[in-house]
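Student: I would love a firmer grasp of how sequence relates to backbone shape in proteins. Thank you; the sequence and its tokens follow:
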Amino acid sequence: MNLIDIVDSAFANEKVASYPQFKAGDTITVTFKIQEGDKSRLQKFKGVVIQIKGATPATKTFTIRKISNGVGVERIIPFQSPAIDSIEVNKVGKVRRARIFYLRNLSGKKARIKEKKLAIVKEEAAE
């Protein structure tokens, strides 16, 4: 492994480490920085993560699916993409599989994913 590979992996891991943890079934919003000529703008893509693929950070990708005007739209995004501005987790889904391709065949209420209930521990006042 040469010096260039070491530097690339160090910077790559730094960027990926800043992303929140998410898995298949979670609803996330990915904000892309889009360059059009000399202007740049931010565009958000909100959808359900249907798979995370790849072992190393250099080859790792995730697929997001959403329904837009009644048409299913999927986007495959590399973790190392320089176009990603930020990733935000909106809902934590409760699914039993790592790849939820069965979502492609469902529509309407059947396509909903149950939300995982996060336990909030309340501290009781000491009396």
Summary: Residues 3-17 form the longest helix (15 residues). The mean pLDDT is 85.
